[in-house]
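hiii so um. not sure if this is the right channel but i have a protein structure encoded as tokens and i wanna go backwards to a sequence. like what aa goes where. can anyone help
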């Protein structure tokens, strides 16, 4: 899985912002042809995006383009022009406002036709599906399984809040009057379950108060605690907060790696072929190994290094 702790939104019509994004420490950059791009600017933005992708300099970032949704007149031209022009330097197409599995299948089919025509590897370009209304959430299981290209399921909070008539104008914050629990918990868990059932990533949407980094950390912390893989960032000031929030704490990463090493040794011939053993005051077993794999995987993807490696007892 590509790391996607921070997914930076960049208007596809702004060459200045695109150039700046190359040097930022976001795991993913998505060049936007939808909401961040005015209708009259979309045709020119496609050409700007193709040139930017082909120029390179993205330093291992996941390179994604968000096209317009299938209810508009722009979508097929977005996909054809971008993929034909820069498909070799593109990792995923993000499809907004997905409501049915058929919309994902349609994008999959169009991508396959372009890949065959252009001589690209068929199936390499992934799909990121954005859930932004009630119908999309109801169908999220089918959406997640609609194509092997699907790499992420994304929560789009602003449009979603409008679609269910939520009583709030502050994206990501609790609506006035909802003073117990989390109004977004069901939505986030629904998306997370659909994603995890098919081993794809779950990404939280943006926090629009871009100068309130403490607020961003608080909201991001909720989805990170559930198990989400990352969150959209709309401003460079949110990137470090996202990378930190969706990475394990150093002590948790160290402990996870030590569980893996200890369990591997204790289940070996040299370690006594045990199914369960003690690591300090903690009993570890196969379930512990699975939990540790999650934390170690996130830490390795973030480039973390262990501070205090475990050694077998006889060493």
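sure thing!! here u go:
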């Amino acid at each position: 899985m590509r790391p996607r702790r921070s997914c930076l939104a960049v208007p596809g019509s702004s060459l200045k912002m695109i150039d700046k994004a190359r040097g930022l420490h976001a795991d993913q950059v998505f060049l936007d042809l939808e909401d961040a791009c005015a209708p009259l600017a979309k045709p020119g933005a496609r050409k700007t995006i193709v040139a930017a992708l082909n120029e390179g300099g993205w330093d291992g970032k996941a390179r994604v383009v968000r096209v317009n949704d299938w209810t508009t007149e722009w979508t097929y031209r977005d996909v054809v022009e971008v993929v034909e022009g820069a498909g070799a330097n593109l990792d995923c197409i993000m499809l907004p406002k997905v409501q049915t599995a058929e919309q994902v299948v349609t994008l999959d089919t169009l991508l396959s036709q372009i890949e065959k025509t252009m001589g690209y590897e068929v199936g390499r370009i992934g799909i990121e599906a954005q859930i932004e209304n009630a119908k999309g959430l109801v169908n999220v299981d089918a959406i997640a399984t609609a194509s092997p290209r699907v790499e992420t399921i994304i929560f789009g909070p602003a449009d979603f809040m409008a679609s269910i008539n939520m009583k709030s104008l502050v994206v990501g914050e609790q609506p006035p009057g909802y003073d117990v629990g989390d109004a977004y918990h069901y939505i986030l868990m629904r998306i997370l379950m659909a994603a995890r059932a098919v081993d794809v990533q779950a990404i939280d949407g943006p926090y629009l108060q871009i100068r309130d980094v403490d607020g961003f950390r608080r909201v991001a912390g909720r989805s990170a605690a559930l198990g989400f893989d990352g969150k959209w960032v709309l401003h460079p000031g949110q990137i470090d907060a996202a990378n930190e929030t969706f990475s394990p704490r150093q002590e948790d990463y160290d402990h996870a790696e030590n569980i893996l090493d200890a369990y591997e040794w204790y289940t070996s011939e040299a370690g006594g072929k045990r199914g369960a053993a003690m690591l300090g005051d903690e009993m570890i077993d196969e379930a512990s190994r699975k939990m540790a794999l999650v934390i170690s995987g996130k830490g390795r993807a973030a480039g973390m290094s262990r501070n205090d490696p475990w050694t077998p007892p006889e060493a």
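oh and The first helix runs from residue 15 to 22.
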